[in-house]
Design goal:
Chains A, B: InterPro entries: C-N_Hydrolase, C-N_Hydrolase_sf, Nit1/2_C-N_Hydrolase. The structure is a homodimer. Chain A has helices at about 45-55, 140-145, 160-180, 230-235; strands at about 1-5, 10-15, 60, 65-70, 70-80, 85-90, 95-100, 105, 120-125, 125-130, 150-155, 180-185, 205, 215, 225-230. Chain A is an alpha/beta fold. In chain A, helix 1 links the parallel strand 2 and strand 3 (about 60).
Chain lengths: ~240, ~240
Amino acid sequence: MTSRKVAGGAPSDGGVLFQEIWNCPYSMETLPSHGEDIDGGASPSVSMLSEVAARRRITIVGGSIPERSSGRLFNTCCVIGPDGQIKAKHRKLHLFEIDIPGDITFRESDTFTAGQEPTIVDTDVGRIGIGICHDIRFPELAMLYRSRGAHLICYPSAFNMSTGQLLWDLMQKSRAVDNQLFVVTCSPARDPNAESDYMIWGHSSLIGPFGEVIATAGHEEATVVGEIDHSMIQTIR
Amino acid sequence: MTSRKVAGGAPSDGGVLFQEIWNCPYSMETLPSHGEDIDGGASPSVSMLSEVAARRRITIVGGSIPERSSGRLFNTCCVIGPDGQIKAKHRKLHLFEIDIPGDITFRESDTFTAGQEPTIVDTDVGRIGIGICHDIRFPELAMLYRSRGAHLICYPSAFNMSTGQLLWDLMQKSRAVDNQLFVVTCSPARDPNAESDYMIWGHSSLIGPFGEVIATAGHEEATVVGEIDHSMIQTIR
């Protein structure tokens, strides 16, 4: 998902959002071996994002990767500025648990430790609040970001088929409408041949402050490009 | 909109929800002349609802009527028990204002005074929170009702075409999903020949705690009947 901020009609700075867990398979068994030490400066994934952000002079909301820290594993999103520096780091607050017998069982808390803090950061594409996937189910987080002046909320995600059809569209639009801001989501594409029972829903989107779909993908691989016009927020409010 | 509570699979007590402003046309010019003094016991509309509730042994969430009180006018919903007594009274909290040049202009606050209190009440069909129409746009009210143990929220409403298509479905489902309870709405039917520029959206619905549509109407006159199974709330949570 890429977006451009529009000021006075002319595209200026750009931003790119990646999906949840993009540096390795989303398999609870193998995730720990892909953990990277971000604070220790030993994260090849974040180093790559920093290099690209600096070279392209863009803001990157870097999806998430498993972060190893003090012997624990977090589901972590780094926001990187056009100077290549990490501007903020969000650790997924609400870990996903599902148990539908005969359909899907998934316990993220067996592997990850939950984060403790909301994350809001000023960037060249606006003031951004960060949530990771299941964080979108909690309206309080989005309301907190709104109260702190967020222009947009980015949710790197990986909804599955069970919750995707019922909730994905609804959650994105209601967070946008209830808080009168932009919501940007990025999901992996669906792999119909995946052996995992965690089949991805897809449908990365950019939603406007009135719930309008500005840009969206299907469930296949795609780059979604949309423009974020901050003046829409004031118009709506 | 009528609903039955289901306990152990057998329908027991029933409830009926009416629309916003059902005792007179929704015209700001003529509304004041239809105001009724509910507290003074001089409301023919509420008397009629009480008589029906007692005769049918049902709970009635009586939509809303213009209530005259101390020289002011409120948009007021009475909840009436199977004994015919008024159990609760909700005055619309968030008055509706819209001004889209060339499309629709509407200022409810020119006529009505806003209520000051949320309303939650125990009835034979469950613990009910009340909101009137534009009140549904405010997630805080629904969250307050959830925190006070509501099983369902009733929103007598009258959305128009401008906001209906964008927001009606979204608002009902997100209040239900975010708070894991039932949402019941009742709207007037659409009159395509109405001379007013306030054209009604319609689509009264009963929504379950996972956002599922249990029963719904189109924009024509209809009675919507659905069953509310309280055990679904615990299953979802």
